[in-house]
Amino acid sequence: MKACIVAVGTEMLTPLRVDTNSLFITERLNEIGIDVRLKLIVGDDVEELAELLRAALAWADVIVMTGGLGPTEDDITRAGVARVLELPLAVDESIVDRIRERFMRRGLTMPEINRRQAMVPRGATVLPNPNGTAPGLWMEQGGTAIVLLPGPPREMKPMFDIVVRERLAARTKGAGLFRRVLRITGRTESDVDAHAQPIYGKWTSQAVPITTTILAVLGQIELHVTAHAPCRAEADAALDRAVAELRDGLGDSLYSVDGRPLEAVVGDLLRSNGLTLAVAESCTGGLLASRLTDVPGSSDYLDRGVVCYSNRAKIESLGLAERLIEEHGAVSEPVARAMAEAIRAQANVDVGVGITGIAGPGGGTLQKPVGTVAIAVVGHGEARVRTFQFIGGRDQVKFQATQAALNMLRLMLKSQSGR
Predict the structure, then answer these.
(1) What is the distance between the alpha carbons of residues 116 and 302, in angstroms, rounded to a whole number?
(2) Per-residue model confidence (pLDDT) at position 174
(3) Per-residue confidence band for 380, with pLDDT thresholds at 50, 70 and 90
């Protein structure tokens, strides 16, 4: 089944508001086997809304509309749908009574303008809204279900879960779209696809068809692997086989097969091996420590993080030799390694990480341009040190540096644990 989601409201066509409802609705529709093919935002113009609705009715099995059900003149969703379906609108007095009672419970008198929210197209099913004044509506046209939901998420979400989901699920007979998110780092999008496409290209024609989407995200590549299956058990079996094939094809660059971020994967490796960690950061300004501590339970393995931004801080906080910095420069592999070794010894932990670089936009030279970052991971008699050249703005360089540091740490831990 194919779905179209329409968000109604001129405010969402400005920089001041973002349509988040469509993300929630997409997730819920996918769970019951409905594939979202199109998302739209339309302003408060009844003619434009009607035009979009006519086009969607030509192909969609489900149309979910949010917003535009309020009491004011710019709330045009009911009128637009009634116009396309050629249905008269009439006030449902029972809805008026419920709205009036809601105002009375708050010690207020219902404004007459709220009667607009009780306008119902002939034959529509009214969907109760215990969290607001605007009821939802359910209509059908030529086999297409048309669902009108209020815009505020606190009203829309429970209405969908309690009232709408069951109605739509009955149409899909238990089938669903079941997804796994695989994450890869240290490789380009084209390189990942060159290795993965021969694997996933054959999956669309198998008994449980699987579609794959490849996405380039800052510091990593994501593969979204989706099975179209009659039940979760069949989907899981097919997805398990698919993930195993991709793991064989992509090797160690594939770090997560269940959507976990890199910092969580690294944390689990540290915990399972009973290891502790400390980090010394310069250009990343504490971002590595912040990402590590975003993971609940990170106190099991992270001891401390030190931001030694200036050369003086590197000397005074970590005890680095001034001569080392003068000889190699603050952004260099010897300094990164010395930082990692110093913080490891200072904290008396198993593993130390050192990061030093030029995040920009200034500070670069011909020999060390903006984006140059040296990273070291030291522990258990092993040291991994590497210089990277990242592209992008300051925030992007900082994030990519922490991603590279986490991946170097992950690979070291896997190597030492034999996994």
Answers:
(1) 58
(2) 73
(3) confident
For the chain, the domain total comes to 3
Same domain as 281, residue 248:
no
Closest CA to 19 of 32, 30, 6, 28: 6
Q: State the angle between helix axes of 232-250 and 189-200 in degrees (0 to 180), rounded to the nearest 10.
A: 130
Same domain, 129 and 29: yes
The angle formed by the CA atoms of residues 80, 129 and 68, to the nearest 5 degrees, is 25
147: left (phi over 0), alpha (psi -120 to 50) or beta: beta
Residues 291 and 225 reside in one and the same domain: no
Are both 379 and 244 inside the same structural domain?
Answer: no
Tell me: do 79 and 56 sit in the same domain: yes
pTM over 0.90: no
Gap between the Cα atoms of 146 and 66, Å rounded = 11
Q: Check: CB of residue 24 under 8 Å from CB of residue 153.
A: yes
Q: Where are the beta strands (DSSP E) in 14-159?
A: 35-42, 62-66, 89-91, 119-121, 125-127, 136-141, 144-149
**Together in a domain, 163 and 29:** yes
Let me know whether 248 and 287 are in one domain: no
